[in-house]
UniProtKB/TrEMBL annotation:
Organism: Rhodoplanes roseus
PANTHER family noted in UniProt: HEAT SHOCK PROTEIN 70KDA
Protein name (record): Heat-shock protein
Keyword Cell cycle: no
Domain of life assignment: Bacteria
Entry keyword set: ATP-binding, Nucleotide-binding
Gene3D superfamilies: 3.30.420.40
GO MF, any single term: ATP binding
CDD domains listed in its UniProt record: ASKHA_NBD_HSP70_YegD-like
Record-linked InterPro entries: ATPase_NBD, Hsp_70_fam, YegD-like
Amino acid sequence: MPTSSRAHAPAHRACGLDFGTSNSTLGVVGDGVPALLTLDHGSTTVPSAVFFGLDHAHAFLIGRDAVAAYVDGQSGRFMRSLKSILGTPLVDEKTQLLRRRVTFKEIVRAYVEALKHRAEQQAGCALDRVVHGRPVHFVDGDAEGDARAEATLADIARQAGFSEISFQYEPVAAAFDYERSVAAETLAVVADVGGGTSDFSVVRLGPERRGRDERKSDILASGGTRLGGTDYDRALALAAVMPALGFRTLMTRGDVEVPSGPYFDLATWATVNRLYDKKVLPELKLVRRDAREPKLLARLIHLIEMRRGHSVLIEVERGKIELSDADETAIPLDWLEAGLAPKATRALFETATAPLADRLRKTLGETIAAAGLAPAAIDAVFFTGGGSLVPSVRRAVRAVLPDAAVVDGDRFGAVGLGLTIEARRRYG
């Protein structure tokens, strides 16, 4: 389990920071009670999004303001799911940002710095010590890459103004939040299905345990995989939306499909901006000329010319959420073409995401086995993270733990609250 460094700083100068793929939170302890700060239009969650605009009013925005500026059609550069670049070579690559080139690491630092500034304004004091959340694995099967990702995140936090930084696994943090409501000794699995990763921890919890300074022996095992809500977005986008833009259609010669690369970039939050490279449009126009269904390619070209790639994913994400309760939904793209609204069904969605569910079951089973336990020994499964709303995700977890009691936590706040509890424990 990740550990802390120093342990005797004033509590009001320490915080817990959950920098998430889709949303972020920051919490402090006041009067002995952990609480998340309301940092974005009265909400405790801040979308992990940035917008760099051409005019002064939109020069640099984060969270809901960034999303609104993009949706409203302001001229500039929009980015979301910033966390997904950690552990990849992309973090040190430079990208064109209006009139200059900057690294993606600098963009993440600007977001974290802005989040910290807002928190300090609300808390009324400097926040210089932080317990930072992290997934169990930033990358799968690459210990060195995983260590580099944590080191990068620590360096970003230092550059943003934190002087003392420590880490805690996100599902372990969520367990500490859950423990506040546990009335008796409980052997629990925390299932944290976030935007970019799915993480599991097997933890012993209880009223007599939560006051202890050392909890390492209570964390029996943690495991995870780089799979989350954005992967479900991509699967739904490829299955339901991209065919309306020419995906999997054929060229005029032979049975060769049109190039799939642009569609995968468009379906992935972290790579949408690749479509705006100056080489992409000329290449796609050549493809359109030799495509059997040039009208569909024309839609894709028009979308890129409008720089509305993220708008597609915003609508796909909404559709994914709607399919949690509905059997069918439409994904409106009438801003691209009047009346264009591809249909998405839950059956289509679950077929497209079946391999993801298999990975979840496998990862959870391995985590429980690493704890030296049988699934029947688990008393409760605690769900957190936005991805835990997806019915097939819940079924995958329940397939491994059919007898465990189901507990739903604060899907977007449990990790941040647990990190704040840990900040109090580590820093005073």
